[in-house]
């Protein structure tokens, strides 16, 4: 059986490129005739999907004889004027700079619905949008903006291989409803975005490059550069300056491997800092109805991305750690240590404290990575949609704090007593793990403060509607009080 993708998008045409008439046998009775103006990749994929959905399709082209072989047999390829005259609803699938060439179709398109599928070359924040300009060119038609967020591949292969949402907007409710019905019949989910003034936002959607990831990625890179330079100064530069000892070979593996867990732990702590700030602000205000500052609001919406960046650094740290014994420098060190032991007639190099430290911090580190993996998997939409809100909040909040606690313990065990060893303060700089532990320990301390009964109880009251300024007094629901109300006054 030949590969489906190796076949041409359309099966062979009729005689000599002659316009083919619509086949009634493949279209459902009473289905509206859908016109497409344009013969590009998007037009071909759209025609194929419409035909598969049971619609009669007529394609308008400036050169129908040349374009006829590119479309399905069931679709008619004709001139733009004839297609505009036959169709009940028309997709305008030409670049926006060519919209003015369609002005001659005004009489044929009067009173009909036009679907603008165009996109801009760059983000347009000032307007007008392509759809609004098209509406100005065709004031007697009803313009609907939509389908611009779908790719030709998604249309060709069906909604299972792409986003199923189609954002629509129009000033005419009837025209928008007809396009929404068409979307559902094609297997997509229409999303009503309101009036045509929203078309600018819809046109900008495909042009954004990871807008919610920009700050987390910049933060991750900034932390990585800071900790890498810090570790380089302490572990590589200091021996060279003080003892002329060259250990620059540590830069690609060892220095990176010490930097990655530092970034991972700080990023994980940054996930829970905004939640604590929000809780303490609500306690300070005595209400939940005040808006958070903009910076805090944006921070709260970036927690998922911060957590995934932390997970990436933790996974890379685990991989780098597994690669440490493979290095030739590690084998040289091992052989030199063994040779030195034999030469010095040392009986036993076993140190219980170091052995226990290594065993403990490795074991705790594996557990921390396991918890982080669970948090990362649960953040996937396909997994998050299978759990209810209580389950999701338990995993992301309770287990999240457990992951932060275990990762902090992993760092503490790694440091052991070296924080109190003056030899570790090279160039008067404290060990890296001392800096790394500041933020996680602060977050865990803040979380413990919220567990204090007086603060925890007041916070629960605030989040259930209690306001200090309005003197509303009530108790939280329990077995004896179904609605939790005790007294309401001065409201």
Architecture overview:
- The protein is an alpha/beta fold.
- The chain has two domains: 175 residues, NAD(P)-binding Rossmann-like Domain (Rossmann fold, 3-Layer(aba) Sandwich), CATH 3.40.50.720; 252 residues, Four Helix Bundle (Hemerythrin (Met), subunit A), CATH 1.20.120.
- The chain is built from 18 helices and ten strands.
- The strands form two sheets. An eight-stranded mixed β-sheet has the order 3-2-1-4-5-6-7-8, sandwiched between helices. It has a two-stranded antiparallel ribbon with strand order 9-10.
- β7, α7 and β8 form a beta-alpha-beta unit.
- α12 packs across α14.
Key phrases:
491 residues, alpha/beta, Rossmann fold, Four Helix Bundle (Hemerythrin (Met), subunit A), 2 domains, eight-stranded mixed β-sheet, two-stranded antiparallel ribbon, disordered N terminus, copper, P5C_Rdtase_cat_N, iron
Give a short overview:
Residues 262-403 form the Ferric oxidoreductase domain. The chain is built from 18 helices and 10 strands.
Outline the fold blueprint.
Blueprint: E1 33-37, H1 41-52, E2 56-61, H2 64-67, E3 76-79, H3 80-86, E4 89-92, H4 106-109, E5 113-116, H5 130-137, E6 142-145, H6 152-157, E7 165-170, H7 173-185, E8 189-192, H8 199-204, H9 214-243, H10 251-285, H11 294-301, H12 303-323, H13 328-343, H14 352-378, H15 381-384, H16 389-415, H17 432-450, H18 453-463, E9 473-474, E10 485-487
Parallel strand pairs: 1-2, 1-4, 2-3, 4-5, 5-6, 7-8
Antiparallel strand pairs: 6-7, 9-10
Helix pairs in contact: 9-10, 10-11, 10-12, 10-16, 10-17, 12-14, 14-16, 16-17
């Amino acid at each position: 059986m030949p590969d489906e993708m190796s076949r041409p998008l359309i099966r062979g045409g009729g005689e000599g490129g002659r316009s083919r008439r619509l086949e009634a046998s493949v279209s459902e009775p009473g289905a509206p005739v859908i016109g497409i103006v344009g013969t590009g990749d998007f037009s071909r994929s759209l025609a194929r999907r419409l035909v598969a959905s049971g619609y009669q399709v007529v394609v308008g082209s400036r050169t129908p004889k040349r374009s006829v072989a590119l479309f399905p047999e069931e679709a008619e390829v004709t001139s733009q004027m004839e297609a505009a005259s036959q169709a009940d609803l028309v997709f305008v699938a030409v670049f926006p700079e060519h919209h003015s060439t369609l002005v001659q179709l005004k009489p044929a398109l009067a009173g009909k619905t036009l679907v603008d599928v165009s996109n801009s070359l760059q983000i347009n924040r000032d307007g007008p949008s392509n759809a609004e300009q098209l509406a100005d060119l065709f004031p007697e038609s009803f313009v609907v903006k939509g389908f611009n967020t779908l790719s030709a591949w998604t249309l060709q292969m069906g909604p299972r291989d792409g986003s199923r949402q189609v954002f629509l907007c129009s000033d005419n409710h009837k025209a928008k409803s007809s396009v929404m019905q068409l979307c559902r019949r094609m297997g997509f989910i229409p999303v009503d975005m309101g009036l045509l003034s929203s078309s600018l936002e819809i046109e900008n959607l495909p042009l954004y490059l990871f807008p919610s990831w920009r700050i987390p990625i910049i933060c991750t890179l900034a932390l990585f550069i800071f900790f890498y330079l810090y570790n380089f100064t302490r572990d590589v530069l200091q021996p060279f300056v003080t003892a002329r000892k060259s250990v620059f070979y540590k830069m690609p593996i060892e220095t990176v491997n010490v930097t990655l867990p530092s970034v991972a732990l700080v990023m994980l702590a940054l996930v829970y800092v905004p939640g604590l700030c929000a809780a303490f602000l609500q306690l300070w205000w005595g209400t939940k109805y005040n808006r958070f500052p903009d910076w805090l609001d944006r921070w709260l919406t970036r927690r998922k991305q911060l957590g995934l960046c932390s997970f990436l650094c933790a996974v890379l740290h685990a991989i780098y750690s597994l690669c440490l014994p493979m290095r030739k420098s590690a084998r040289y060190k091992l052989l030199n240590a063994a040779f030195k032991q034999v030469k010095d007639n040392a009986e036993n190099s076993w140190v219980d404290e170091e052995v226990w430290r290594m065993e403990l911090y490795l074991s705790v580190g594996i557990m921390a990575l396991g918890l982080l993996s669970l948090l990362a998997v649960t953040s996937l939409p396909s997994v998050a949609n299978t759990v209810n809100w209580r389950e999701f909040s338990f995993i992301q909040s309770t287990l999240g704090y457990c992951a932060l606690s275990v990762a902090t313990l992993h760092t503490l065990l790694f440091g052991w007593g070296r924080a109190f060893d003056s030899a570790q303060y090279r160039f008067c700089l404290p060990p890296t793990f001392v800096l790394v532990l500041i933020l996680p320990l602060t977050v865990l301390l803040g979380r413990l403060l919220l567990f204090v009964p007086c603060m925890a109880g007041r916070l629960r009251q605030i989040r259930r509607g209690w306001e200090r300024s309005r003197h509303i007094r009530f108790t939280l629901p329990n077995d004896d009080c179904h609605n939790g109300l005790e007294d309401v006054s001065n409201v």
